[in-house]
Amino acid sequence: MELGEAQSGPGTNAGLDGGGGAGAGETAAGVVNGGTKSVAPLYLCHKQVRALKIGAVEILPEGRSKIAPKDEAYAPFLAPSGWGARFHGSEDDPGYYVLYEDGYASWSPTKAFEDGYSLMPADQRDDLTFKTPLDVAELARGVGAAARYFADGGGSEPDIFAREEAAIMADFVRDNPDAPVEAMFIHLSLKKRYPRTEPNRADLFVLSLFHAACKAAIAFEADQAAEEAAAKTKPAPSGGWPGDRALQPSKPAMSPTGFSPR
Asked: Whole-model pTM?
């Protein structure tokens, strides 16, 4: 018998889950007989996940699963291929759709999920707080949050792109300035392997303002860099006695250069 292999049969279980009777070389509750140690190490889960409580699941003819979140503020979406095989919910307990940081999508029963996870407080989530220095992605992230708040009628805390999501989309806009807004969203779906959803009118409004903010900020950075480069190559003013400078014509009082109307 190999290490870690348990005997099977009546009254035995095949792991350290504490379920069933004890087999040869093991007992319940993670205690293993034999060897130099008897108790398996205890681990604490410290993962952060995104999750939605499921309202209903529809199995489509091609084998894909369409999930309707219990919170109707979220639109129904297609789960990744293979997710249906991991779904073991029922009408009494549809459970949770769980998305891990690496893009892996899973399912969890309600009690198991709620016993193991709690909703992060607003001040700890990746919400509308800005990092320093502010970059293009972070600026567009704030614009997108304000757009979502506006689209939702200002009745609740705005949903906001995570910093990684904003960076992926901002980099796409920088590399593909002529690509449409929808291409930016598709690129995010491919990079993060999120369930593909059809953006509704509010989603497109948020995405379009995020996209516009990226383009405006990128253009501003380019203009600013060009001005700084030009200033470095501009020859220094020639010297001379003050009278020479005094005789030079001055700019009109209403010259547009540097004039800011109030």
From this structure: 0.46
